[in-house]
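Reopening this one. Same input as before:
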Amino acid sequence: MSEQWGPDEGARQWRETVGGDGVIVLDGFHALKHALRFGAEVLVAVADDPGAVRALAAGLAPDVAPAVERLVRPGALRELLPRVHPTGVAALALRPDRAAGLAALARTPRTAPIVLLDNPRNLGNVGAVVRLAAGFGATGVVTRGELDPWHQNVVRAGAGLHYATTVDRLALDELPAGPVYALDPEGEDIRALTLPDDALLAFGSERHGISPELRARADHLVSLPMRPQVSSYNLATSVAMTLFHWGGPRDETT
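Same output, byte for byte:
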């Protein structure tokens, strides 16, 4: 297919759009694919080889192939980004409306928990948690602290699945209603508990664990089974184990 645009059309549109209010970077084909699949407003997609990206969409995600066909423009990504994703494509999209996201978090009754990350530090870990939350159908992922959960590297690690759930940063007094189940080594073994659908499942930072103020707010302290002398699990692993326990078989007789 011959290009309808000049060889640098994508780069021109990118430079005109990047840095705008609410504009985020989708780095790589899978981030673009998921964003389109879950309703993102994608403004422009840029590829070193648009034909290769179209072929990738046709083979891996035919449901979004028409949108990729419409959006992708040629441009040298190495001039736009510090590093180029192996799939050779990146895009700019609008962050979802924040008011709608907050309303989704506050809506009750909830049919799935909210994952609460208390002052996380690692961008990749937060992205992995968003990916898990989207896969398990969690109501959303909320962070406390300085880290922006919509940072480009978080969205990259989350493969664009921010659009499949609700992701936001809130202060302690802004948290949605619901019982707080905080993961803590001193808590009750999770295997003895049933986690309710309206729970806030709280996980501490990678180094310091749950903060004192959130621990004081917690309704339950919960621990994951762990072999003695093993210090901790990775944050995303802890979230995965907890969500798997929540979504596992329920005892309908209780």
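So the earlier flakiness isn't reproducible anymore. For the record, The chain has a mean pLDDT of 92.
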